[in-house]
Write a structure and sequence with these properties.
The protein is of the alpha+beta class. The chain has one domain: Aminopeptidase (3-Layer(aba) Sandwich). It has a 7-stranded mixed beta sheet, with helices on both faces. The radius of gyration is 15 Å and the shape is globular. The structure holds coenzyme A. Coenzyme A binds next to strand 5, helix 4 and helix 5.
């Protein structure tokens, strides 16, 4: 799986997706400190990915926290992080299977990318993309040549 590059300077400073999700009863916001353990455990449980739980933990260690969550009826339905794998990287992210297709994944992605843009980044890297078409369509991401296995190449364990 390759990495993708996103031009943050081409993404409009438009946070309307927050209101659009709100109309569907979905809240997109940043979590706060006391929610860390709950969110990290939820990511581990729902996506069965220990590395994703570690990366979410890292996002909570950043100041300000570099993670957004999606809630419906006060229950977690999705999450997205950046500066968690490495500086400038977006991910991990996920929306519960039964809650997909309502724009929540894109809203979480845009929240992270706009937050990165406001922080001063010019580009974001989507690490080891799964659904490339999703990123291409949502934010015009392009594949980075020869970027496999990317930053994960010397990891202590295999993903
Ligand atoms: C990828 C993911 C976060 C998308 O969440 P979602 O809430 O279903 O996405 P959205 O509803 O915001 O979709 C936005 C657009 O992307 C499209 N899209 C969503 N998932 C897609 C996919 N896997 N492949 C191609 N297009 C996709 C939607 O059709 C939608 O298109 P539209 O704007 O024309 O309607 C979700 O499928 C997921 O959690 N997948 C498993 C975890 C994962 O792969 N994470 C990424 C690791 S890099």
């Amino acid at each position: 799986m390759t990495d993708m590059l996103v031009k943050l300077y081409d993404i409009k400073n438009d946070w309307n997706f927050i209101g659009n999700q709100e109309k569907l009863g979905i809240t997109i916001r940043k979590p706060i400190g006391p929610e860390k353990r709950y969110v990290v455990d939820w990511v581990r449980r729902k996506f069965m990915m220990e590395p994703w739980a570690s990366e979410t933990d890292m996002a909570f260690s950043n100041r300000p926290i570099s993670c957004f969550i999606a809630l419906q009826k006060k229950k977690l339905i999705g999450f997205a992080c950046y500066d968690a794998t490495a500086l400038g990287f977006f991910g991990p992210t996920g929306v519960l299977r039964q809650r997909r297709g309502k724009g929540t994944g894109k809203a979480l992605l845009l929240a992270c990318l706009l937050d990165m843009k406001l922080k001063g980044y010019g580009y974001a890297i989507i690490g080891s993309i799964g659904p490339g078409e999703f990123y291409r369509k949502a934010v015009g991401a392009v594949e980075i040549p020869d970027s496999t296995p990317s930053i994960w190449k010397d990891m202590l364990f295999r993903l």
